[in-house]
Design brief:
MetI-like fold; 2 strands; 13 helices; 75% helix; 293 residues
Length: 293
């Protein structure tokens, strides 16, 4: 073998550490979850093999459909609004002025705060007894809504939690995409007489497709699997109006201690994630064919 010539085996050696970590932190827990999902596991004691009975039990439970619909509603609303706010911030702050840099820092503050702390902060803000919302309502002599005790308001509060925290992530990703666009393209379009809207639609959006897709997938998976928001902010209430699939899994596994059914529902949630991403990719591919983006 000539000096400097690399064999395929040598190239794969560089991937080995990443593959080992991936196997240890992703595939091994997934395999263990699959194993537990087809067994009776109560109070951390492995029982008998029961096939798909755990799946039938969780899918036929009356709270599963409710949690599934709550997860879909929350994910779609939070995804759309968070992406829109993040996109708007990226377009507005796409300049290296002192004011823009300061505003970027302010927008990033909720994202660097732990989700637990941020959710507790919003819970205090929306609190009926000592929150800022009732205080502001009293200042203007209006009746304060019981936000966390009303199903519609509670869902809106949870969506607001997602927007408040994760719009910064969307802003950073889309701002990076905007900075990757060659300035000469925009300058040439302006010389040719293109307006701002035409430049945005014909130049910026097509070149932002990779950043938009990555941002949407990341936000979708985050909102579909988030546990901290409903657990801390609303507790799944009122009347299970904000109980997501992740929170239902938590309660089955760590309150009822039925780890067999909890892992079965976790596998269902994993399949839901896969289907959701496939649908998002299909929509993205269709819009590309229609030249919408």
């Amino acid at each position: 073998m000539m000096d400097g010539q690399r064999t395929p085996f040598q190239a794969y050696r560089y991937l080995l550490p990443a593959l080992v970590l991936e196997a240890g932190f992703v595939f091994a827990p997934l395999a263990l979850s699959l194993f537990y999902s087809v067994h009776r596991v109560r109070y951390y004691q492995l029982g008998d093999f029961n096939g798909v009975q755990n799946y039938l039990d969780v899918l036929s439970h009356r709270l599963f459909l409710n949690s599934f619909l709550v997860t879909c509603s929350f994910s779609l609303m939070a995804l759309a609004l968070t992406f829109a706010v993040g996109f708007g911030l990226a377009l507005f702050l796409n300049r290296d002025t002192s004011g823009s840099i300061l505003l970027r820092t302010i927008v990033l503050l909720p994202y660097v705060i732990a989700m637990l702390v941020g959710s507790m902060l919003l819970k205090w803000i929306f609190s009926t007894d000592a929150g800022l919302v009732p205080l502001a309502a009293a200042w203007f002599n209006i009746t304060s809504p019981t936000i966390l005790a009303d199903p519609d308001y509670a869902m809106a509060a949870m969506v607001a939690n997602g927007i408040w925290r994760d719009s910064a992530f969307a802003m950073v990703m889309l701002l990076a995409g905007l900075r990757s666009i060659p300035p000469n393209l925009i300058l040439a379009a302006r010389i040719d007489g293109a307006g701002s809207f035409m430049i945005f639609r014909r130049i910026m959006l097509p070149l932002l497709r990779p950043a938009i897709l990555i941002t949407l997938i990341r936000l979708l998976l985050h909102f579909a699997n988030v546990l901290t928001f409903p657990l801390i902010l609303t507790g799944g209430g009122p009347n299970n109006a904000t109980e997501t699939l992740a929170l239902r899994i938590f309660r089955i596994g760590f309150e009822d201690f039925d780890l067999g059914k909890a892992n079965a529902m976790a596998i269902v949630l994993c399949l839901f994630n896969i289907v959701a991403v496939i649908l998002l990719l299909a929509v993205f591919r269709k819009t590309r064919g229609g030249q919408s983006l």
